[in-house]
Write a structure and sequence with these properties.
The protein has 228 residues and is mainly alpha-helical. Helix content is 50%, strand content 11%. The protein has helices at 2-25, 57-84, 89-115, 176-210; strands at residues 31-33, 40-46, 142-147, 151-154, 166-169. The strands form 2 sheets. It has a 3-stranded antiparallel β-sheet. Helix 3 (89-115) runs antiparallel to helix 4 (176-210).
Length: 228
């Protein structure tokens, strides 16, 4: 359990430290280069789900935050059960990363609206503003900042629907919590795949150690008499 708690703590500290720094020091929609023209810290806020998708207005935002809290509770319980039954190290690490990432974004959507003033293109946010935050409890926005436009150009003219349009890869802006979730899901799939391969290999191992099991059309290996 110590390994899981350490992973969660480190991810949360890194995620929240960077988010608070960006929130207090960047104008909204401003950026600085970290990898030339291929990587930026670009401050935006996500009030909805992944890739900025929103639904249902204020009620949708509230339901989304409550759903995130419920999902994190379920993931935390699953991680506890995995540690108790001594699941594989990769599985524990993967779920710890997913849990840490989910917690990091929940902190934003739950508390940031109360803790910070609004960020605008002309005014930086303030922590604990005297006039109150920019949103009620549970209605905050998630802070995103990593933007990597690795490839940019125009789609071929012959392509149906999107021919000639400008495209950017990779367009989404994300944060450390999002990265932790993505890495965790990837490791989880690999861990499950490895477990499945081991389980499939076990019967073959038993056969190779104990000899070929007799079949209805074979003979007894001790008496060499046909089996009925």
């Amino acid at each position: 359990m110590k390994k899981a708690l350490l992973i969660i703590l480190l991810v949360l500290l890194a995620d929240q430290a960077l988010k608070v720094w960006v929130k207090l020091n960047f104008f909204y929609d401003s950026s600085i280069s970290i990898l030339g023209d291929k990587g930026y810290l670009h401050f935006i806020e996500n009030r909805g789900m992944a890739f900025g998708m929103e639904f249902g207005g204020p009620w949708g935002k509230l339901l989304l935050t409550l759903f995130r809290i419920a999902a994190v509770s379920a993931i935390g319980y699953s991680l506890y059960k995995m540690v108790k039954r001594k699941a594989s190290g990769m599985l524990v690490v993967s779920v710890s990363l997913i849990l840490a990432g989910a917690l990091g974004n929940i902190i934003d959507s739950t508390f940031y609206g109360v803790l910070f003033s609004a960020s605008t293109p002309f005014k930086k946010a303030v922590l604990f503003p005297p006039d109150g935050g920019y949103a009620p409890l549970l209605y905050g926005a998630v802070v995103d900042m990593f933007y990597f436009p690795l490839l940019e150009g125009r789609l071929p003219e012959w392509l149906p629907l999107w021919g000639g349009e400008h495209f950017v890869f990779f367009r989404p802006v994300f944060n450390i919590a999002d990265a932790a979730i993505t890495i965790g899901i990837t490791l989880f799939v690999l861990a499950q795949r490895r477990t499945s391969q081991v389980e499939q290999a076990e019967p073959e191992t038993v056969v190779s150690l104990g000899g070929t099991p007799p079949t209805s059309g074979g003979s007894d290996p001790l008496t060499q008499q046909p089996l009925s």
